[in-house]
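Dear support,

Our group has been running a series of protein-ligand predictions, and this particular one with S-adenosylmethionine is the one our PI (initials K.S.) wants archived with full inputs and outputs. We had some confusion internally about which version of the output was final, so please treat the block below as the authoritative record. The input we submitted was:
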Amino acid sequence: MVQAMTGKLTVIGLGPGNADQLTREADVALQTADVIFGYQPYIDRVPLRAGQRREASDNRQEVDRASRALSEAARGAHAAVVSGGDPGVFAMAAAVCEALEHGPAAWRDLELSIVPGVTSMLAVAARVGAPLGHDFCAMSLSDNLKPWSVIERRLQAAAAAGFVMALYNPISRARPWQLDRAFETLREHLPGTTVVVFGRAVGRPDERIQLTTLAAAKGAEADMATCIIVGSTETRILTRPNQPTLVYTPRSLAAASA
Ligand SMILES: C[S@@+](CC[C@H](N)C(=O)[O-])C[C@H]1O[C@@H](n2cnc3c(N)ncnc32)[C@H](O)[C@@H]1O
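Confirmed final output from the archive:
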């Protein structure tokens, strides 16, 4: 008789950084795990309860981390893997699926649950108004896992299609020129007046929100903790005399611009 595996793996989204933006479901899942795997800064955000273990690993070791968590679960533990934001957005849920697909067949019998989190683009959007109020897309600008030529083609297509864009992983020490190249590419397809929002470390004490235009946008304004929202031609700025400026994209598309 084949013995059912008793361990399980939960992939948990921690939200963008503010404890108030951790969902109740994520909080409960964190408390019930025996061992928590994650990138060190995310692990540091999780209060450790008595008897719980944690294992931090480097940023680039996602599939290895996923495999170690799956191995723990296969040994009968309740393992958890944490991600910033939502685990399904450029994060650990896909890495776990990759490890499952290529790992031992027995891992496929494990109970797996994914607990969603507030992803960065939603946290940034909420800070400024409703820039994602109409159709939008999300892209990672990292060319570690796909060629830069594909990124440029997708930026051009998204701009031509009229999508608002949320750009994740905009820049890093190893990828210093790509963001400025992305802005250049977008300037060829969108007016210089297009609204751009830089949302840095949203929900953390060092949060910074900056509004600018595509003509003025510079890569140096961003870092690895920044999520950038590039508006469509419909996205507008609403100034209010005594309240912060709002950025929003109306829900309906004017027939003239369709
Ligand atoms: C590997 S991706 C992970 C995304 C994450 N799973 C999510 O749902 O937000 C890392 C990127 O997310 C964005 N990011 C993560 N935390 C952020 C925050 N607090 N504020 C703004 N952007 C953030 C940045 O673009 C960063 O380069």
